[in-house]
Specification:
The protein is an alpha/beta fold. The chain is 42% helix and 11% strand. It has 9 helices and 7 strands. A 4-stranded parallel β-sheet has the order 1-2-4-7.
């Protein structure tokens, strides 16, 4: 922003994300908004996936370009919370939670969740979804938000038909087309080195192998104790 020329320079972002935490993607989206507000033409290319929080970022672009089979959309909110309360009771383990404020904790992993708490939690999900829809509608007014904000995702051609994207093309094709008329600069961010990498040791590799082993042991123990293993994973992407 400090050295580029607004109104003349363009910014192209290669975006690949299935989404994540609301606050994290809200911040990432806000950073992209700064580019548009500064007067830059912002193009976002999606070669594989821009879903949920990923689409929250993508919708800010002046132009969204998608590969033919990229996954786009998933304008919705999801929360998964396992509850071990019955398992604890079976093993005579008490769980006590102290809060100040009626809705400081609505649902928990270890406490006994109440209908009131569950209802409040669902209400908060709906409120977040409304904010998400309004955000998308602001930057993509050509969209029929009620039609696409169902949590569904679409592949490139269908996404184009629904105005979720503006053009079908890979990022490589798009950038090659710009080369004859523009100077193209690739900007990469450097990953912060871990402590193990800084010391030249194998600590990072040891940790990577140790943690899965510990988690598998915990999973086996839970399975034996409760005969049901709770899994939390996104089966879509």
């Amino acid at each position: 922003l400090a050295t580029a020329k607004a109104g003349r320079d363009r910014v192209v972002v290669r975006l690949e994300s299935p989404g994540g935490m609301v606050h994290g993607y809200g911040l990432a989206a806000a950073q992209l908004v700064r580019l548009r507000d500064a007067g830059f033409h912002l193009t976002i290319c999606v070669d594989k996936v821009a879903a949920s929080g990923g689409y929250m970022m993508a919708c800010i672009a002046n132009e969204i370009i998608s590969a033919p089979f990229a996954v786009v959309g998933s304008i919705g909110v999801v929360a998964q919370v396992p509850n071990f309360n019955r398992l604890l009771k079976e093993h005579n383990v008490d769980f006590e939670l102290y809060t100040a404020g009626q809705y400081k904790r609505t649902v928990t992993m270890f406490g006994e969740n109440t209908p009131e708490g569950k209802a409040k939690f669902e209400e908060e999900l709906q409120q977040t979804h409304v904010l998400f829809k309004h955000f998308v509608e602001k930057y993509r007014p050509q969209l029929n938000v009620d039609k696409v904000a169902t949590g569904e995702h679409w592949y490139g051609q269908d996404a184009l038909d629904l105005n979720l994207v503006d053009k079908l093309q890979t990022s490589d094709e798009y950038l090659l087309a710009l080369l004859p008329q523009h100077d193209v600069y690739v900007i990469n961010t450097r990953k912060k080195a871990t402590l193990g990498e800084k010391l030249g040791l194998q600590a990072a590799q040891m940790t990577d192998s140790l943690i899965p082993a510990v988690m598998n042991k915990v999973a086996d123990t839970l399975a034996k104790a409760n005969s049901t293993l709770v899994q939390m994973r996104d089966t879509k992407f």
